[in-house]
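Rotation project, supervised by the postdoc (A.L.). Task for the rotation student: set up a whole-complex structure prediction and record inputs and outputs verbatim in this book. Inputs entered:
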Amino acid sequence: MNPTDFQALMVAPEQPLHEALRRLDGTGRGLLLVVDPEGRLLRTVTDGDLRRARLQGLPDSVPVSQLPGHPPHVVYEDATAAAVLALMDQHQIDHIPVLDATQRPVDLVFRRELTQRIWLSSPHLGEEETAFVEEAFRTNWIAPLGPHVDAFEREVAAEVGVGHAAALSSGTAAIHLGLQLLGVQPGDTVFCSSLTFVGSCNPILYCGARPVFIDSEPATWNMSPAALERAFAWAQAQGRLPRCVIIVNLYGQSADMDALLPICEHYGVPVLEDAAESLGARYKGRASGSFGHLAVYSFNGNKIITTSGGGMLVANDPTLVARARHLSTQAREPARHYEHTEVGYNYRMSNVLAGIGRGQLRVLQQRVIQRRAVFERYRDALADLPAVRWMPEPEGHHATRWLTCFTLVGPRASQRCNALMRSMERHQIEARPVWKPMHLQPLFAAAPYFEHALGHDVSRQLFETGICLPSGSNLSPEQQDRVIAHLRLVLEKDEVNRALV
Ligand SMILES: Cc1ncc(COP(=O)(O)O)c(C=O)c1O
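Outputs recorded:
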């Protein structure tokens, strides 16, 4: 509910019955909040209360505070959606006011919201997936190989302008194989962006190697060239250059490759581009994922296109991709009997899922347009809230806005973000903090970390002050309006925002 509609629900205790009825009709919410002069909730008045008062023959002039009724059912700001729903069920009511610690109403939760969850990023099928999957069934290609796998590889490679592709069971599997292809051995070090999902760097541990984490830069939220320079200088001084650098392209936006790649080239260290979140994005006219020696995409269920689960490894070097296919099918040597000379994996994508992927790939460009439109709608609708800073998209970048993300500026941003996400959760709106950086994860507590500038930990700041909003290409305008209205309700009251206006 937006702040104006919410304010319209407040009435004074002396408001006469007939005026309250008119107000109730005007708001169309079936509920008024009777508040004292300090704004504290005294009671609620529902359609039913007013109708019963009429039936009992109470005069139109009777003040609402004197209507028969019971103390209101309320929750406080820390209440979860489940607790609110339980209270609704217990008392058979459809709306519950939320009070702050001073007993003032700050929000109102409706039952219908609680049954219509808004997801962060849910799968969005096109029209051709079913036909491809049916074809796989009809032709009995229900295997981790088949014509859809081959075609999906060719089509992804063509889409991103890279020579070759290997379809795999997940993005994480693709990174694991990518590290092996680049020769990562036990005891090696691998540089990796710190601000990412753990799938980027768990494979470093699978290889028995040690991660070194690199901070983000404020301009792209991706790997900081300054931090990368310092990490390389440190590694060289130790006589231990990393075996490779994993550069992550977050939230549908490429890292600043023109600044990062020459540094890696200078030290002769190859780049594995983790483009799991950035299929469809472009940087200086080229596809995200076309810059590294190898790159990886994910088709996990929340990605811009999905195969329900899957990944793709791409490279211009055909021998690398052929080797990825070999390793992903248990490293079987070409012999009639099963012959093995090295460790392999069961990492191949199935022909059925590749069929879904082919259908999805046909709508990729449409999905980019839709996700960008979702972002633009948020940005325009909330343009007058100065505490909100959107993830930047620098010149030369064309992001997909896979997720719309923003940070809150000002003091206590972390607490304010948490309060905002808690209140969204209470309304069944899924929002997430920006990734918790890997250097802050207990799993990687011992790993070295290089900040953007000394004393300036950008990724930590983004984590503490950043929020990802529901961003799916299938988010309806009505759902987005619900998110926008709720953000307004909370942020217009945010003290820092008010001070900045
Ligand atoms: C940046 C990043 N890297 C790697 C992965 C791993 O991909 P998957 O889930 O397909 O294993 C993901 C997402 O899931 C991701 O967001």
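Student's summary: Residues 170-172, 196-197, 199-200, 248, 274, 276-277, 298, 300, 311 surround pyridoxal-5'-phosphate (CB under 6 Å).
Supervisor addendum: The longest strand covers residues 41-46.
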